[in-house]
Amino acid sequence: MTVEMCPYLHPRGSAREALAAYRRALGGDEPALATYDDIGMDDPAVRDLVANASLRSPVVGPLMVSDVPPGTEPLPPAGQVCLFGDDEAALQAAWDVLVEGGEVEQPLEPSPWGSRFGSCRDRWGVSWMVDIAGAGG
To answer: InterPro entries annotated for this entry (predicted)?
Structure first.
């Protein structure tokens, strides 16, 4: 028996576009994806939006995303994720993709606790923290 936990993100704009970037940042096979039309919602406003998509990353495990249908109230948070570990190359590569078109809140730099730490909000509104252990230099 297995139990897993994974982030479920609601990127603003295009979940497909965000998912492609997350796949570039974190690796993984082609994501499993279902549109709202696939699950029986033929409303033209949502039919082609992503109802649920899952990416299994060899770096971080599972990640799920979906578009938020127009008019959804209250609007769910876009999400916040922390990537951490000691694989400096993988975490730096992920950071480089996540900040493309986004906003760096805290540059990826040495932290008081001995790692390199940074935070950003990607172009879809999802917040990311990256902590590279032992790379505080």
So the answer is: Glyas_Bleomycin-R_OHBP_Dase, Glyas_Fos-R_dOase_dom, PhnB-like
In a domain, 137, yes or no: no
- The set of residues, in sequence order, having a beta carbon less than 8 Å from that of 113 and lying 6+ positions away, is 136
- Please name which of 65, 83, 71 lies closest in space to residue 124, comparing C-alpha atoms: 65
What is the pTM (predicted TM-score) of this model?
0.88
Cis amide linkage into residue 107, ω under 30° from 0 = no
The predicted-structure confidence for 30-48, as pLDDT tens digits, reads as follows 999 999 999 998 899 999 9
Beta bridge partners of 8: 64
Structural domain harbouring 23: 8-69+77-132
